[in-house]
Amino acid sequence: MSADLTRISAAALADKLQAGEVSSVEATRAHLDRIAAVEPAVHAFLHVSDEDALATAADVDARRAHGEQLHPLAGVPIAVKDVVVTKGVPTTAGSKILEGWVPPYDATLVERIKAAGLPILGKTNMDEFAMGSSTEHSAYGNTHNPWDLDRIPGGSGGGSAAAVGAYEAPLAIGTDTGGSIRQPAAVTGTVGVKPTYGSVSRYGLIALASSLDQAGPVTRTVLDSALLHELIGGHDPRDSTSIAEPLPDLVGAARLGALGDLSGVRVGVITELQGEGYQAGVLARFHESLELLQRAGAEVVEVSCPHFTYALAAYYLILPAEASSNLAKFDGMRFGLRVEPSEGPVTAERVMAATRGQGFGDEVKRRIILGTYALSAGYYDAYYGSAQKVRTLIQRDFAAAFAQADVLVSPTAPTTAFKLGEKLDDPLAMYLNDVATIPANLAGVPGLSLPAGLSDDGLPVGFQVLAPAKADDRLYRVGAALEALLENEWGGPLLAKAPELEVAR
User: Fold this and answer.
1) Is residue 383 part of a domain?
2) Contact of 472 with 196, CB cutoff 8 Å
3) With contact defined as beta carbons under 8 Å apart, do 469 and 197 qualify?
4) Residue 285: alpha-carbon gap to chain centroid
5) Terminal CA-to-CA distance of the chain, rounded, Å?
6) Can you tell me the distance from the alpha carbon of 476 to that of 135, in angstroms, rounded to the nearest whole number?
7) Residue 25 sits in which domain range?
8) pTM for this one?
9) Which of 16, 23, 81, 160 is catalytic?
10) Catalytic site residue 156?
11) Which of 23, 95, 133, 180 is catalytic?
12) Tens digit of each residue's pLDDT (9 = 90 or more) over 284-299
């Protein structure tokens, strides 16, 4: 029974909970047992909150027994990326500089999760301060891809994707600054959604790049993502960038899409996000998915977004610049790690240098140096200012493309999961993993990645759907339709084809 509870979707588990077929304590215990069994191999979590999760589950069961009206997802366990602050629970952002830090407050999305009664299983591993595409830059060790433990689970949110893909959690929260939800989803065979910028509160997210960061769901089905997205989304007056409008009907769009009819929907294939540099198997699954969309009644057209060619370069100027500013607060004075110089006078400047030298990893230092340089006198206009102009051109490309199509599509990542260590010493090769996901963050538009099958190497491939800002419901309609069509082809969910993990005894 416990194995069955970890294998079903969040929506199916919610139905069982509401029908009284299973208790939240049973479901939560089943997932905690699964975590204990596979964590030695996967290492998706940095902290597991056994007692708190079971206490929340018991409270939900008691309230349900008394006839209280609860949120549809009440009692369904969830994991949270460790860049999201959680009151009373360690939050490190994958960095030694925050080792042992326990926040005194909850992020807005955590408040909403707790208010809805979802037991929080724990905090998931990530690249330090969300800087990376493989979760190899975590200060606390690598997370492993459940499909092949010798391969990366994507990044920066590899922990959340691996936890969902390894059946340790039915739902997870990730954050996406340049693809950190969608790229891990692509390489682990899960579903990941980057909502419209400002539609999910950033209050309580440890900032990387404030104009790019966005929290969103990581799940095993499109419907599950819609349910979680509706729960965490909506206006928050504590976030100055929050959109003061309600979300569209995401769950309704997913249920409509699952019927498999896309008549009248125009799907734009982005010319610049395919071809050279894309693995043959990735492109094959992408074009097979396009054929399925056409069979469902969609009109498929080619669209050109010429300035997407410069998106990667612009992103890796804007992000480091904002990161260098945001990470200035980690100085050894206020919270987190404090390292005093081993010799000489203990001054504020020397404490700061010692703390940041020991507390930050190589990738974080690399981006801080790059960002500080791009913002320095004499270089601001040449680098940061020019990158912002390119950003405007990319936004115009999106506007022109959405005049021709209701949604845009591409492969989520150019390749399947690569081997651990394969690109660790080549930052530029690592950055290229985000080439298809970065444009959405620069423009603030929403994106969804869902599994599109297996490449020739037997590893998952992701299919990306992009929609105009505040039209997130289009993602769910098209995504759910393709998911239903693909599962009909495969005879069930793609994750069912994943090799079984060896469990600890």
Assistant:
1) no
2) yes
3) yes
4) 22
5) 18
6) 27
7) 2-308+392-497
8) 0.97
9) 81
10) yes
11) 180
12) 999 999 999 999 999 9
175: which strand partners?
215
Number of domains within the chain: 1
Find all residues with CB under 8 Å of 328, minimum gap 6, and list them.
Answer: none
Q: Residue 502 domain-assigned?
A: no
> What's the token pair of residue 230?
């509706």
For the stretch 213-271, pLDDT in tens is: 999 999 999 999 999 999 999 999 999 999 999 999 999 999 999 999 999 999 999 99
DSSP string, 290-332: HHHHHHTTPEEEEE--GGGGGHHHHHHHHHHHHHHHHGGG-SS
Give the CATH number for residue 238.
3.90.1300.10
- Taking the C-alpha atoms of residue 458 and residue 151, their distance in angstroms, rounded to an integer, is 12
| Per-residue DSSP letter, 257 | H
CA angle, 459 as apex, 152 and 415 as ends, to 5°?
Answer: 70
Write out the two tokens for 304: 């050109």
Would you state the structure tokens that stand for residue 24, as one six-digit string? 């939240």
Q: Identify whether 389 is a catalytic site residue.
A: no
Q: How far apart are CA 485 and CA 255, in angstroms?
A: 14
Q: Which of 49, 156, 201, 324 is catalytic?
A: 156
Active site residue 81: yes
| DSSP reduced 3-state for 219 | strand
Say how far apart CA 346 and CA 474 lie, in whole Å. 57
Radius of gyration of the chain (CA): 22
